[in-house]
């Protein structure tokens, strides 16, 4: 298989059980995409085993991280990443502050249980990514490579700073024929955590790296504003990864190593 031969990392998007996934990711008006995703999972498992990650968007439709992780685990999907939806506050999918806080409570409870259950082989990606940083003593200045180390190309050849901003022509950087507008792209080199007043004061800044600019844009229409509830979750996940790391280094180095090497 081409992807495997050339060592591609694969990230599969699935948003939960069939009815929820189909609601979140329909083809056209009526047809859900769950069956296609299932077929894709089978193909990937055949070639990659379980060495591919899944990305799940948590929204108001199904704000239950424990049930989502259980569903994925039952499908044999163990490298999981849950992202909270990015949508303006009047959008049907948006998690309001109360639902968001409930979600954080459930997620924390779920993860602390996961820590106790040795037999659960789930790799909860944000946690293991943070633990890799602790083990390697690395720090971040930027949340991700948006616009700097990463670009997204649409099927029509347009170039955007990130796959999540595909189709957003206000942030278009160029196209494959004319090339990239470097002036527009340079903006992304200036938005490290030190650009944001809130981040400069935040204890988590060198692990977090600053806000997800795509989230900021989706929520606020600006690349310069933070979303407080998203910061709350990042900090909670970093705290939990510290708990995981401290506990596993004392009691289960083998399991810690498995998180650090997958
Ligand atoms: S958690 Fe929020 S305030 Fe803290 S560094 Fe990250 S984006 Fe900045």
Question: How would you summarize the topology of this molecule?
Answer:
Blueprint: H1 2-5, E1 11-13, H2 18-24, E2 26-27, E3 31-32, H3 34-48, E4 53-58, H4 65-74, E5 79-84, H5 97-116, E6 123-124, H6 125-136, E7 152-153, E8 158-160, E9 174-175, E10 179-180, H7 182-186, H8 197-200, H9 205-208, H10 213-220, H11 228-251, H12 253-261
Parallel strand pairs: 1-4, 4-5, 5-6
Antiparallel strand pairs: 2-3, 7-8, 8-9, 9-10
The structure holds iron/sulfur cluster.
Based on the model shown, name its key terms:
262 residues, alpha/beta, TIM Barrel, 2 domains, 4-stranded antiparallel sheet, 12 helices, 47% helix, binds iron/sulfur cluster
Structural features, described:
The protein is α/β, with parallel strands linked by helices. The chain is built from 12 helices and 10 strands. It has 2 domains: 170 residues, Aldolase class I (TIM Barrel, Alpha-Beta Barrel), CATH 3.20.20.70; 75 residues, no CATH class. It is 47% helix and 11% strand. A hairpin with a 4-residue loop joins strand 7 and strand 8. The longest helix is centred in the last third of the chain and has 24 residues. The protein is globular, with a radius of gyration of 19 Å. It starts with a helix and ends with a helix. The relative contact order is 0.11. Bound molecules: iron/sulfur cluster. Iron/sulfur cluster binds next to helix 8, helix 9 and helix 11.
């Amino acid at each position: 298989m081409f992807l495997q031969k050339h060592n591609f990392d694969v990230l599969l998007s699935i948003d939960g059980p069939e009815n929820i996934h189909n609601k979140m990711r329909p083809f056209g008006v009526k047809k859900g995409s769950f069956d296609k995703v299932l077929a894709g999972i089978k193909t990937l498992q055949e070639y990659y085993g379980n060495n591919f990650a899944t990305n799940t968007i948590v929204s108001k439709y199904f704000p239950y991280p424990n049930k989502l992780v259980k569903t994925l685990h039952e499908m044999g999907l163990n490298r999981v990443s849950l992202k909270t939806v990015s949508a303006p506050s009047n959008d049907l999918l948006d998690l309001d502050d109360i639902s968001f806080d409930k979600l954080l409570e459930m997620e924390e409870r779920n993860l602390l249980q996961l820590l106790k259950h040795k037999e659960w082989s789930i790799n909860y990606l944000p946690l293991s990514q943070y633990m890799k940083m602790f083990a390697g003593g690395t720090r971040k200045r930027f949340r991700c490579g948006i616009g700097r180390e990463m670009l997204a190309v649409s099927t029509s050849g347009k170039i955007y700073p990130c796959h999540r901003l595909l189709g957003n022509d206000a942030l278009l950087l160029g196209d494959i024929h004319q090339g990239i507008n470097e002036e527009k792209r340079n903006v992304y080199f200036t938005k490290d955590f030190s650009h944001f007043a809130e981040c400069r004061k935040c204890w988590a800044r060198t692990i977090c790296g600053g806000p997800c600019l795509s989230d900021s844009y989706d929520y606020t229409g600006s690349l310069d504003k933070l979303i407080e509830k998203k910061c709350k979750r990042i900090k909670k996940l970093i705290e939990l990864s510290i708990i995981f790391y401290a506990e596993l280094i004392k009691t289960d180095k083998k399991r810690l190593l498995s998180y650090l090497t997958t």
